[in-house]
Write a structure and sequence with these properties.
- It holds the Pfam family DUF1989.
- InterPro entries: DUF1989.
- It comes from Leisingera methylohalidivorans DSM 14336.
- This is DUF1989 domain-containing protein.
- The chain has one domain.
- 16% of the residues lie in helices and 28% in strands.
- The termini are far apart.
- The structure holds zinc ion.
- The site of zinc ion has 8 residues, from loops.
- The site of zinc ion (ZN) has 8 residues, from loops.
Length: 285
């Protein structure tokens, strides 16, 4: 884009102003990671679900249990949606999670829910890709900046009719799991946590980029469910997202979801978080 306005004389001085973090998060309620990780040691597996390549699968996790998403067979990226099992209107809020924790999340950080709830839905308790950090391109893993690949954007940019984007996979999986029509299910699908995806913004143009995920079979991301969760995970048609998505071109692999129940009494002192304390009046009686 070009525009007609010239930079002012003090342009450099204005650019040199130091940034301020929007939401200093020292006052965020901190999870008791030690308690969770101790509880995980004695937990037993209660079930598993496999998201097939270019498909999605739903799973349910009771509050106080754990779920693990693993790479199996080959490098693969997953698009994750979470809902309150008892109330689909409470769902993962990617934008606010990004504002609170940053562009990518890892161990100790949380997936926050939509207004008026704004509470932790799940806390990351283990991340085998935590070593990756931020690479020289500004890329990192497990982003909350992308949305989910979808057939509408594909149609906008390329006139395509592709049916196995994560948006469609999540829609079909949710519809099937809850016995809804696809039309009923679709509005519940929302912006995702991009599990294992390696992304950032280009420094020169500010564009969203992806690169081959560093994930390998055996890698996993594990969560503690803070409330009763209904989840859906799509094995993205982009595979490891090294080249393209929204097509059947990329090599694609399944993703494994496993659920674990802690031993009785292992979460002593923990309580499922209450919904946000704002009174909801918006200043009017
Ligand atoms: Zn996708």
């Amino acid at each position: 884009m070009t525009d007609i306005f010239e930079a002012p004389a003090d342009a450099e001085a204005r650019r040199a102003v130091r940034p301020v973090v929007c939401y200093p998060n020292e006052t965020l309620p901190a999870p008791d990671l030690t308690l969770f990780q101790q509880a995980r040691l004695g937990a037993v597996k209660t079930g598993e679900v496999l998201a097939q390549p270019r498909e999605a699968a739903c799973f349910e996790v009771p509050a106080g249990h754990f779920f693990r998403i693993s790479s199996v067979e080959g490098p693969q990226v997953g698009d994750l949606n979470l809902w309150n099992r008892k109330d689909l209107s409470e769902r993962f809020y990617s934008g606010k999670t990004r504002a609170l924790h940053g562009t990518h999340i890892t161990t100790g950080e949380r997936m926050w829910s939509s207004f008026p709830h704004l509470r932790p839905m799940a806390t990351i308790t283990a991340d085998t890709l935590g070593w990756y950090g931020i690479d020289d391109f500004g890329g990192s893993v497990h982003d909350v900046i992308g949305t989910r690949c979808d057939p509408y954007t594909g149609n906008l940019l390329a006139g395509s009719q592709y049916h196995h984007c994560c948006h469609s996979n999540l829609t079909r999986a949710l519809a099937e799991h809850l016995g809804m029509s696809r039309a009923e299910a679709e509005p519940h699908v929302h912006d995702v946590l991009n599990v294992f995806m390696c992304t950032g913004f280009t420094r020169d143009t500010g564009q969203y980029f992806m690169k081959a995920s560093p994930v390998r079979p055996g890698d996993y991301l594990e969560f503690f469910a803070e409330i009763d969760i209904l989840g859906a995970l799509s094995a993205c048609p982009g595979g490891d997202c090294s080249a393209e998505h929204s097509s059947d071109t990329a090599a694609c692999h399944p993703l494994l979801i496993e659920i674990f129940a802690p031993a009785a009494g292992a979460l002593k002192g923990w309580q499922s978080p209450q919904r946000n304390g704002y009174d909801g009046s918006h200043g009017q009686p």
